[in-house]
Amino acid sequence: MLRDDGLLIKKFDKLLIANRGEIAMRILRAARELGIATVAVYSDADRNAPHVRFADEAYHIGPPPARESYLVVEKLLDVARRSGAEAIHPGYGFLAEREAFAQACTDAGIVFVGPPARAIGIMGDKLMARATVTAAGVPVVPGTTPGQSDEEMRAAAIGMGFPVLVKAAAGGGGKGMRPVNRAEELPDAFASARREAKAAFGDDTVYIEKMITEARHIEIQLLADSHGNTIYLGERECSLQRRHQKLIEEAPSFVVDADLRRRMGEVAVAAARAVDYVNAGTIEFLLDRDKNFYFLEMNTRVQVEHPVTELVTGLDIVQEQLRIARGRRLRLRQEDVRIKGWAIECRINAEDPYNNYLPSTGTITASHLPTGPGVRVDTGVHVGNEISPYYDSMISKLICYGETRGEAVLRMRRALEEYRILGVKTNIPFHQHMMDSHRFLSGQFDTKFVEERFSMDDRESSHALEAALLATLAAHEQNQRAAQIVAPGARDTSNWKWLSRWERLRR
Amino acid sequence: MKYIAIVKDQEYTIEIDPDKGILIDDVPHEIDFRRLPSGGVTSLLMNNRSISAVIEEMGDYWDVLIAGELYAVRVQDERAYRLERMRSSGLTVDGEAVVTSPMPGIIVAVPVAVGDVVRHGDKVIILESMKMENELRAPCDGVVTHVFVSPGGAVEKDQPLVGISQGGEDAPDEDTAASAE
Is A500 in CB contact (< 8 Å) with chain B? Predict the structure, then answer.
């Protein structure tokens, strides 16, 4: 069925996954469970990546830079044709929110597992999105309208009062966004936001929004089928961010009660209906101190943090996406959605929390995943894989579930301790420090908490002595081995009691 | 055999002696250390306290991962340690600090020029990598002596970007006065 807004809905049995990393793995698993055949794509940098091995078929699409591989629409459509894939799931990032890609899929007779191209187009243009949802009665943050000159924006900023945010109309993920505290800072902010927006999105239109201080970032997960049913799956709390990159998400939120959840959910549904939305989507809100909420933007794709909602609702959001794209009706009505327990997600990134969160590149030499009750790890990186500068720095997502928030935090602490990755520096100590912080435990944080009131400096290195000893023993062992001439095979290198062995060598 | 292990600015003297066993800062400990067959995993029983770690040699230091925390440990035997102390003590006067690229990327901006006076922590390079702009900062007070790169240029890991002469005559030295108190 081809809808008026360009969305093609039909049953399909073979799916192309136009992505890499953990989200490619996530989609592969959902498709496999539904008995859908899978097609992966990979760049030169990803030949050894797990998503290539887990798919039924895999096709090479070019060199490592995304603009020469994962972002090339023609290559992906060509793979779909060659492989006979009838549908494409874009994941998040890359082509997920490109209106032209969704349209190109439809034009090629391929099901795009996502919303209609038109909905992507409207929601992807922040100014148009604001106008559209405002007309549907959704509250938005005060800001400027499109096409204003720098002077007009400056006047508007002074009118609404500082601080303000300079934002890219085509922006997302914090790119092309600059906070501004004084009118004198505006020219610089315009210039750098435009530069970043031009590079990231090819569009340097910017506008100004009032900055809501002490705000929390709360988002509502939606599911909409092609038969006019739209439901909300509760909220996610995503206030713990750095440079507008989310680091920790949880569901439900500490500050959202049943009444607020219902009100935000209903407004979110109205915003989605305003663009005839279909498939999974998320409405992001800012929630101020007085529990007023403002529409921020709609993410017209599956979100990185979708697992926390899955754990507290018992749903498989990616499977729901596939079902919706195949034309099925939602199996749940709003009153069937129950939030049970608490889930927290930590994004494990290759970055050094002790050195200004500088990204860390390298080859993963060891990876031991945490397991046990209430622990889920979504990862697309295995031992031997490289964390390269071509793609983002996320290694995996560690998600823990508990009956209560406290239980989820205890599980997360335990799982973070168990998780072992070597080869790159990771932000696991950041997460551990957060899980120990009183402010986090008492739910007292906003979107500025990580940047302004959280420091790694007061973290104690409790195992420095043991680390020193272990390194010394390993170095000594190596020295001894180098000094001895031992016939090959005459020694066992595993499982020996170190001290006695050492003594034996000395005698 | 006596070793000096340095981790996070802390030094431990660790002695491995066939008669006395293992002494850490002259205190004997009961140690059982094993390497397990998989991927660098080790098990340490220290006075029966169980510590599990992953160890990897990184050239002139060791990475030790314990309970989520990564420790970079330098291990030297006593002689090498003394030698290095002697050498390094005479060398800090006119050394140049070089800011190198921590990863491959593209230079977005170079906010300093040769001759600029910079303070510890000042932005000297903006590097784009992994889809993010990263600020690289001056490791010390001083004067910019070299700028090796320009905006738009691609750089490799460890490539020199900016040279800074540490606290030379041109640098304001109010800091030295303050720290002398």
Answer: no
Q: Which of B20, B27, B31, B66 to mutate to test the interface with A (most CBs of A within 10 A)?
A: B66
- The residue segments making up the domain with residue B130 are 96-171
Cα A187 to chain centroid, rounded: 31
Check residue B89 and give its pLDDT. Answer: 45
**Residue A142: partners with Cβ closer than 8 Å, 6 or more residues away:** A160, A209, A210
Give the dihedral sign, CA A323/A325/A327/A333: positive
Domain ranges across chain A: 14-113, 142-210, 216-453, 476-506
Residue A244 sits at the vertex; the CA angle it makes with A419 and A26, to the nearest 5 degrees, is 45
Length of chain A: 507
Characterize A238-261 residue by residue with b for buried, 16 or more Cβ atoms within 10 angstroms of its Cβ, and e for exposed.
bbbbbebbbbbbbbbbebbeeebb
Scanning every residue of chain A, which has its alpha carbon at the shortest distance from the alpha carbon of B40? A366
Q: Is residue B91 part of a domain?
A: no
Instruction: Provide, as residue numbers in chain B, all residues whose Cβ is less than 8 Å from the Cβ of A493.
Output: 35
Q: In chain A, which among 426-445 make CB contacts under 8 A with chain B?
A: 426, 428-429, 431-432
Residue that the structure tokens 């600020």 belong to: B135
Beta carbons within 8 Å of A495's beta carbon, 6+ residues apart: B34, B35, B36, B37
**Closest approach of B32 to chain A, Cα-based (Å):** 6
ipTM: 0.79
A301 annotated active-site: yes
Query: pLDDT tens digits, residue range B93-142?
Result: 456 788 888 888 889 999 999 999 999 888 999 988 877 788 888 888 88
Query: pTM, whole model, 2 decimals?
Result: 0.82
